[in-house]
Design a protein that fits this description.
Elements: E1 4-10, E2 16-23, H1 37-48, E3 57-60, H2 66-75, E4 81-85, H3 88-98, E5 104-106, E6 118-124, H4 137-150, E7 152-159, H5 169-173, H6 181-192
Length: about 210
Amino acid sequence: PGEDNNFIGITPDGQSADIITEPDPIFSTEVVGYANRQIQYHFYSIIQNFIPIDQSIIHFGAGRGDFMTWHKITFGKELDYIGIEKNRALVDAGKEANGSTIDLRCEDWNSLDKKIIKDWCINIGSFNKAYEDVEDYGQYVKDTIDRMVDHSKHGVVISFTSDQFELSETDEKNGLHQFNAGELLKWASEKYKLTAVDHVGAMQYGQF
């Protein structure tokens, strides 16, 4: 971990490209959007704070399924978990790292079987990078939240990048998408009533 290795690169449409030199796809935190493991696990702990540790989860934008691994390391329990990820290379890396113990599915969450329901749905920062094939990204995010609600018994927990913080040059170059907490809260409150925004846990990283 932390050393450069050769592996199959990923194009914007999720397909494999030529062999390139990049961080290890199985262990690197950069591949799934975190500068280091400490920051990655910090965000996971914030999300978990809202969810009883013995309740089931569908993870939208699951990457390699690192959340399930973190949960087992942290609590020493098997998590009833389904990870949904559109990027085939990340799913393959996750299955290589976790073996048959992880339910990690390469599919569009909009096509997820309506009968699949868990206690909670989570999305940890996957909205931060806007998909190039989506014209109205704000509406796409709202539609996805609706979908998450449909697949959860108790609720959804999501982390976003706040527009109240200045992006770094690297984040701007990478096209990091920012959100207005007030606008999202107004929309969600009008539609779902029981909603909340928490700036405290992730404020140092510009998240809510």
